[in-house]
Structures are given as structure tokens and as C-alpha cells.
Write a structure and sequence with these properties.
The protein is of the alpha+beta class. Strands 1-2-3 form a three-stranded antiparallel β-sheet. Strand 2 and strand 3 form a beta hairpin. The longest helix is centred in the C-terminal third of the chain and has 24 residues, at about 185-210. The chain has two domains: about 10-130, no CATH class; about 135-210, no CATH class. It is built from eight helices and three strands. Helix 1 crosses helix 4 (about 55-70).
């Protein structure tokens, strides 16, 4: 049996899942079976996007489930050793009064895992995206007007100046978020814009020429 320690932050979610009535569970299962994440977003940002209108219990359950699904997405199955270890941890943490509560929870976890094809694929896609060394967060362009000074900087030209753009890129690494700046001219901005437009055109071409359903 594997030793499993359920994080405190996920206990409420698993407990709520185990206490759902059959009717409420089937409603929840229907939601889970159709949800998918954008593989190029933070998982929990996408979670908030998809279930922002749902109640807190649902959010807690989704987050708890994802912690399990992420462990088993590549394998495509939940093995018996994990279930035994998980059950023991659930009993230690919550000491459920009803003997069948733990079995009901693990049965529901397995049922949701095997009925959540789109969600599992989305989590695998998100994992592939996040394996990159640098993950883009956001960008902005700062534009400056720079006067041209004379040699001793006592005066500057009233007729001429230069216009510079600074491209700020925020990205994530293992040790946190970082910034990098690039000083660019107008022509370089146009060149970058064309490069990005070409990337979008390639995406449209691939989607129109293949049968894949992209996440």
C-alpha cells in the first residue's frame, strides 16, 4: 500500500464529495465530464473561469479532484495501491462515522476520473505547456520620447528627438516571476508584429487542415 497524505487544503473538497446525495453527485459528474481547461493558462485560473458561478463546495471538490487527476493523467488509470493509501489517509484525517463513506468517496473519484476524458487530456496539455523553461505571463510596451542633447548636455535640440519603445515581458520560472526589457525601434515593432501574425496564421492553417480537436 502506498503512503498517501491528503493535504489539509483538499480535505473539505473530498469530504463534500463523499457527502453528496446520489442526485447531487450525478449533477456534479455531468459538469466534470464536459469541462476542459485551456492548456495555455494556469490551471486554477482556468478553473475559476469555468466554475466561477458555482458554489464554494464545487470549487473545493474540483481542486481536490485535480490534485488526484494530475498524479494519474499520464498513466490513464488509478491503481489499487493508491486507492488503499488514499482511503487510509481519509480515515486518519476525517475519521468518517459511516463505514461506507470512504469507499463511496474512492468509488466516486475513480468514476469521475474515467468519465472525465476532456479534463484529463486538458491537464496533460497544461503539464506539457508548463514544462517549458520560461512561461510567458504578460507583456506591455512603454514608449519614450528622448531629446537629443549637445556634447555637454547643456542644451537639447528643439527640432529633433528620437522615439523608442521598450517591450516588457513578464515570465515565470521555477523560482518565481521575472521581467525582461527590449528596446525596439518602430521597424522592429512592425517586424515582431508580423512574426506574431504569422504564428496565428500557421495556427489557423493547422486547425483547418487537420482533424484534431485542439484543447
Amino acid at each position: 500500500m502506498k503512503y498517501i497524505e491528503i493535504p489539509e487544503s483538499h480535505l473539505d473538497g473530498f469530504r463534500s464529495l463523499s457527502l453528496f446525495s446520489t442526485e447531487d453527485y450525478e449533477k456534479f459528474k455531468e459538469i466534470v465530464s464536459t469541462i476542459k481547461f485551456d492548456g495555455q493558462r494556469e490551471i486554477f485560473e482556468s478553473l475559476d473561469q469555468y466554475i466561477g458561478a458555482l458554489n464554494q463546495d464545487y470549487k473545493d471538490i474540483f481542486k481536490a479532484l485535480i490534485s488526484v487527476f494530475l498524479l494519474h493523467a499520464d498513466a490513464g488509470e488509478i491503481d489499487g495501491d493508491f486507492i488503499e493509501g488514499f482511503s487510509a489517509s481519509f480515515n486518519r484525517k476525517l475519521n468518517p462515522k459511516k463505514k461506507n463513506q470512504t469507499k463511496l468517496l474512492t468509488d466516486r473519484i475513480k468514476d469521475l476520473f474515467y468519465s472525465s476524458h476532456l479534463l484529463i487530456l486538458s491537464l496533460k496539455a497544461a503539464s506539457l505547456y508548463q514544462e517549458a523553461e520560461h512561461l510567458f505571463s504578460q507583456g506591455r510596451v512603454l514608449t519614450d520620447i528622448r531629446p537629443i542633447f549637445n556634447k555637454d548636455a547643456s542644451e537639447f535640440s528643439e527640432n529633433y528627438a528620437i522615439l523608442l519603445h521598450r517591450l516588457k515581458i513578464e515570465f515565470n520560472e521555477e523560482d518565481g516571476r521575472k521581467d525582461i526589457y527590449f528596446t525596439m525601434t518602430r521597424n522592429q515593432i512592425l517586424e515582431l508584429s508580423e512574426t506574431l501574425a504569422r504564428a496565428l496564421e500557421k495556427e489557423r492553417t493547422i486547425k483547418s487542415k487537420t482533424h484534431f480537436k485542439f484543447l
